[in-house]
Design goal:
The chain is mostly helical and 286 residues long. Helix content is 78%, strand content 0%. It has one domain.
């Protein structure tokens, strides 16, 4: 059944809205990381998501805690927490656009993980999309004209872990609802990321509380917008707008931190967006 045009437009706008929110999260991370330890930022990010999900727990009652995939929840939780720490560190220590473009490699790593781990067949078109995606990232970073920061390797490790968690989510979705998957991760992440605060806790200035609130609200709003978008229209029709995140990150970095925007960044972003479109179209026809 064809998706109504109105749904496609609304879903596309919701994704763009979500990516603006995620750019806001990145900006707050970069701003707050100059005065607050990363451990606090990660904890408050998870705490906000957990609080938002509490009404769902109350509504579901004891059934919210029943699961047939505890092993996968724990594995996904640990990988996701490490990925979040790497993400926050990368955002704090790299230009926003660079960190974002490397983290956007996660969708291109999923087919590799699926092939190696789940033994799934991957089409030639998908492999082509993966190769084009890596070429796009290389053009964007322009390694021949500058010395690349070693922090990029940390961002790449974060992208690998993000791809791994997404692969796990797909595996768990056979028995677990999306709400349960998100709740278990939020609860586990909140508890675990609270532990480092026992020895890294420091006072938070009043203006930083506002920044933490903005970060949490933007993160939740972005997740809700993205979830609603993909409930209105399939990824093959609107998923391409996810790659707008690098544009918003570049704009924010330029406006607030004077991070340069160069021609090779624009070309690289165009190439990786084309690769993402190719991968999405192949998924829809597969």
């Amino acid at each position: 059944m064809d998706t109504p045009y109105r749904n496609i437009v609304i879903a596309s706008l919701l994704i763009l809205f979500s990516e603006v929110c995620f750019a806001g999260v990145s900006a707050m991370i970069k701003y707050l990381s100059t005065d607050l330890p990363q451990q606090q930022l990660v904890f408050f990010r998870n705490l906000m998501a957990f609080v938002v999900l509490l009404p769902w727990v109350v509504r579901k009652g004891p059934s919210a805690f029943k699961s047939q995939a505890w092993r996968w929840h724990i594995s996904r939780g640990l990988a996701g927490i490490v990925a979040m720490y790497l993400y926050f560190y990368s955002i704090a220590n790299l230009p926003l656009a660079q960190a974002t473009i490397v983290l956007l490699m996660a969708p291109f790593l999923i087919p590799i993980i699926s092939r190696v781990w789940l033994k799934e067949m991957v089409s030639r078109q998908t492999w082509l999309a993966v190769a084009i995606g890596f070429v796009g990232v290389t053009i964007f970073l322009n390694p021949t004209a500058q010395v690349l920061s070693p922090v990029l390797l940390i961002a790449f490790c974060g992208a690998i872990l993000a791809a791994y968690t997404k692969t796990l989510i797909r595996k768990m979705s056979a028995t677990e609802s999306s709400s349960k998957i998100v709740f278990f991760f939020a609860a586990m992440a909140t508890v675990i990321t609270a532990i480092p605060l026992l020895w890294t806790q420091q006072s938070i200035a009043s203006e930083h509380w506002l920044g933490l609130a903005v970060m949490g609200v933007c993160a939740v709003a972005g997740q809700l917008g993205m979830t609603k978008a993909f409930s209105l229209a399939p990824a093959a029709k609107v998923g391409i707008f996810i790659y707008s995140s690098v544009i918003f990150a570049a704009i924010v970095g330029y406006l607030f931190w004077d991070e340069p925007v160069t021609w090779h960044m624009l070309v690289g972003a165009l190439v990786i967006t084309s690769a993402g479109y190719l991968a999405l179209r192949n998924r829809s026809s597969g």
